[in-house]
Amino acid sequence: MNKIIGHIIIISLLGLAYPALAQDCQVIDQFPVEINEPGKYCLDRSHMVNLNQSESAIHVKSSHVELDFRGYTIANPNKDLLCRNDRTEPSIIGVFVDDDQHNVRVTGGSLFCFGIGIKIGNSCTSCNGSHRIDNMRIHNSRNIGIFLIGNSSVIEGNQITKTGNSESGNIFGIYIYESEVNTIRNNDVQTMYSGTGIGLEGVHTALVVENRVQNAHVGFQLYDSKSIRYRDNLTSTVNNPYIGFGTDLGNND
Fold it and tell me: Nearest CA to 119 among 155, 88, 168?
């Protein structure tokens, strides 16, 4: 086959493939946005947003949703287009999943400069579940990187960096509250300006495995929780590596 003709055929085939790729999900390109129906949603580029108090860049109000960032970023920088955590409005959320939802997945991208990066659930401690947050990079959150109220969920393979500020308060890289049967595995929490790397409060039955916390006041907080089992977790430059109660299965440093 003539090389030029071969290249034309390949380019043509790629051209056909790209529209097919775009059609396998509903592209989100305006913010803030609400997702009210089940399905697969995605980004096709990075976005810089300017949200007001108590707004969420993406507000999920449906079960059975997959939100795939496809490697892109949603950023909510301060007016100087940088990010100072002490200037970020605490009530602004990157991705918020409402109460009474199940089977929501958030995956594959970055959130930059929000009060809370990802918040699953609001106040209902028994009506959410089967969620998954994986392969997300969450940078410069004012209060919490990932917050979960939801049973039978997985938080895996995420990187949370530069959370909190010089103020004291409820500052967490990952925070699980009043939930049951969750797995927190293979996450990196780095540079907590104050607060705790990974915290569980009022949690019943959880596995905390192969996580790493660096540069924090508290590494792992297991507060008022039951049946927590943890192993193969590492800390570095942490004042209090482990506090609270749980079953130490070994190789925690």
Answer: 155
Q: What residue type is 69 in one-letter code?
A: F
DSSP at 79: T
Helix intervals (H) in the chain: 3-23
Residue 112's beta-bridge partner residues?
75, 139
- Please state, in angstroms and rounded to a whole number, the distance separating the CA atoms of residues 50 and 157: 28
Query: By the 8 A CB rule, do 112 and 133 touch?
Result: no
- Is residue 221 within 8 Å of 195, Cβ to Cβ? no
CA distance linking residue 147 with residue 155, whole number of Å: 10
The token pair at 73 is 């970023």
pLDDT in tens, 113-151: 999 999 999 888 788 899 999 999 999 999 999 999 999
Beta bridge partners of 56: 93
Q: How many CB atoms lie within 10 A of CB 249?
A: 14
Q: Compute the distance between CA of residue 22 and CA of residue 30 in angstroms, rounded to an integer.
A: 16
**Using one digit for the tens of pLDDT, what is the confidence trace for 220-247?**
999 888 899 999 999 999 999 999 989 9
Number of Cβ within 10 Å of residue 231's Cβ equals 14
- What's the token pair of residue 153? 């969920």
What's the pLDDT tens digit per position in 75-88? 999 876 788 888 88
> Residue 182: its pLDDT value, please?
96
In this prediction the pTM is 0.90
What residue ranges define each of the domains in the chain, with the CATH number in brackets? 26-248 (2.160.20.10)
Among the listed residues 246, 253, 209, the one whose alpha carbon sits nearest the alpha carbon of residue 231: 209
Pair of tokens at residue 136? 């997300």
